[in-house]
Amino acid sequence: MILTELDGGTVIHRLSTPEDIERWRPGFIGAYQTVFAGFPYFERFYPDEAQGIYKKLTSAPNNITLLATRGDQVQGFGVGIPLTSKRSVANQMTGLVPLQHTFYLAELGVLPEYRGQQIGRTLVRERLRFIDPDCYSHVVLRISTNNTPSSEMYRAMGFTEMGVYMNVNSLRTDGQVNSDRRLFMSRMLSQVDLDGLIPKSTP
Description:
Shape: globular
Largest sheet: 8 strands, mixed
CATH architecture: 3-Layer(aba) Sandwich
Number of helices: 6
């Protein structure tokens, strides 16, 4: 399903059929490996690992899986799933948000050569549009504590830091396994104008 087209010919798709999911699988795998091999994560994902992540995300109930493409190339991706589908994150959020009514923006990435073109922001905005407000009241995500551009983008879109952190162990591109620190940000759906993606004023 095509959602919108950006200047320069980038098309935002929502993957909603098995055919779509299979068609774009190789492109997602390549983009995923490239994005997370760079700053700030420097993670090494082998093709079968990236494919397993893709399968798990696209199999999650009520997932919102979006791709930014130009022709047959995947330029970026954005995936959202119910928080309860990501157990490790849900455990961190227990007592802080209503788990059954919280959506998790699980993955966001844009290839380096296409950054600065509003692709990432559009992938966030379009995911938010598809979250059912009758089922979900909160949205959470996590980012690297070193990822200043992303944190600034999310703040501009109404997210705030929760003061909660999580260490993630991963294989890095240098062959070492170590951890990086990630912070959680959240937002209530009812407090945001999804057209402008700025906080609504309150009386």
